[in-house]
Amino acid sequence: FKPDNVLLREDGAVRVSDFGLAREAADRTDRPRAADSGDAALDALVTATGAIVGTPAYLAPESARGIADAATDQFAFAVTAFELLEGRRPFESAHIVELLRGERTDLPMRPWRRRDLPAPLRATTERALAMAPAARWPSMDDLVGRLERAAERPTRTRVLLAALAAAGVMGAIAIARALTHEAPRPPVTAGLAAASLRWSETPLTFQGDLAAPVLSPDGELVAAFDTSGVVLVPTGGGEPRGIDLEPPPGAGYRRLTWSADGKRLLAMYMSSAQTFHSLSIDVSTHAMAPTPIGGGHALLIDEQLVVAAFPPDKALGFKSSAGTERSRCAIPGDYEWIDGLQAAQNAIYVEITWSDSTRALVVTDRACSSVRTAVPRSTVVDFVVGADGVIRAIRREEDGEVLVEYDSTGEPSGAPRHLPLGTSLLAGVRRDGGAVIMRRSTTWRLVDSGASATRELARATSRASLRLSPDQRRFAVVEFRPRKIPTLYIADRSNLNARGTALAEGVIAADWSLDGNSLAVITRSAAGIDLETIDVASGERRSSGSSDISPQGDVLWLDDRRIAYLRADHRTYQSFDRVTGTTQPIVDPSHGWTLGLARSPLDGSLAILWNRPDGPGVWLVSEDGASRWIRNTQGAWTFAWAHDGSLWMVEGARIDRYDPRTERVEPIRDLALEPTAQITAIFPLTDDHVLVQIENTTSDLVLFAPIASSNTGP
Known about the structure:
By secondary structure, the chain is mainly beta. The protein is built from 8 helices and 48 strands. The chain has 3 domains: 3-197, Transferase(Phosphotransferase) domain 1 (Transferase(Phosphotransferase), domain 1, Orthogonal Bundle), CATH 1.10.510.10; 200-441, 6 Propeller (Neuraminidase); 469-586, TolB, C-terminal domain (Neuraminidase, 6 Propeller). Strands 3, 24, 25, 26, 47 and 48 form a 6-stranded antiparallel sheet that branches. The protein has a 4-stranded antiparallel sheet with strand order 4-5-6-7, with no helix packed on it. Strands 8-9-10-11 form a 4-stranded antiparallel sheet, with no helix packed on it.
């Protein structure tokens, strides 16, 4: 039971459709419960690999044991009633999935926000949401009676009744009445018609180091990068085949595209030495040929290359295999850049992206004679165009990711299908409807590395951004948990696992003021992206009113009045003056992109990861604007200043120290890391003592095939 299954007729009558989870009370007395009657009913809820079937937000805790009866129906109804009354659901969906998978035992309920609702109404709903089935109402009739009495209490006036009706109470009662009088349904079998999560799960790989997966046009192979080169994975089972690349790909830019005939792959990647490579690979023989690209994204069509121009150009270039441009085609629009190319059915699909991370898909023929919109601008994570020309996408919703199909007008067609937790990229969809998805799992740990020993201070199973306070005693922690709003809290350095009081939600980046009394934060909400300051002691928040802020979130406190942040173009930083309310660029944006920023505590100098034409890498910029090149990036994407004015930089698993006075670089520490791990933050404490945040992300391919429904009821 869920809102999607509630139908309202023109005469106002409420009907419940596809109510396949319920069993009639009389029917239950004649037949054993699902937990006792073999695997069929259990498989309908939980697959052999643990994939939960059903919309998690509406599933009762006992569903994990295969129980589907009136008590579970009552729980699902109460979730819907709460949603009707509050405009949100009573539990975090991620919590429910964790509970159903046995990863937690509690299920904290969100507090009521609406104090205008009668206390008996709230209490009635809360009892129906009890974790234990026996603690709920004896029957739906009892629940309905309580709801009706809550809406008709003698002490209430018609004004209150009108308010209750407007709030959705009467609608909830009508739904409940329809539910209690629902006609008998066939027995539950594998593949519930009412379920939104109907997937069988087949892991395709177990190596954990995959990136940029893409499905072949015939749906038989997935190509992906690993740490050695490219791996070809059969979607129907079988041994993966590896294709070694020399030099091997690094952790940066990696793209793969199939040729339209599925016989070749175009591999584009950055090596660990930060050199760009593009190769055409014969899938059968593994023969390779260098292919000059000269752009950000490319396709192989027959003997022709289609290349997306680098920003700010908005065009496609049609080139020979030798790289000679034959023609050029403009892709007009107010978007920021082209973020992907795909080919299907003699057409070229171009993915375009805006600074707020929204996306759209436009399509042109191979002659580029006309350009039209295939899917309008929306909050889509990833587009895939099948060989049949059907457009599919991953879209993020409140309950997580859903797979959406689009019709020829660019509108969603059919109901979206909820995807399991951990979905990060859609490699493609086979002709039988099976979705090949990359599942990503991230953990992080903080280690204390001294001259003589390294010990672990904290570990967590979700991403987090850490910033150490100026006195080195506290951390500002922005926690990114799956399907939860990012949360900012303060934690003591000596006990990082003990979370302090949450200061704010929706925070995506934070930095301490120089005195440690305030935090500058980038927040994201329905209203947009904002730069705010938070008083740590009082929790008082103040908006800057700034605009043009990157949703990727990067913020740095420069001095008592200026705060730097990454602009929405994701290329340049600018400062906000808290006194005058004005902004100005940190460095001349015409000199190239700036990708990272850190401020010296001694003299205010800035270390900048700068993609300058005269020397990309880490640059040092003094307060008077003078700049000097320090080193090539070579993977040194993470750096931090120590209190003595030295700059510590990460080079793979090694930490180096740069002294601006002598201009010398010396190695400090070489850490043992897993192949899938990387250093994401460093916090120098003394000359030979540093805290290191290490993030380990494993990525593997999984085939999710839809389970056919066997419910033949009306």
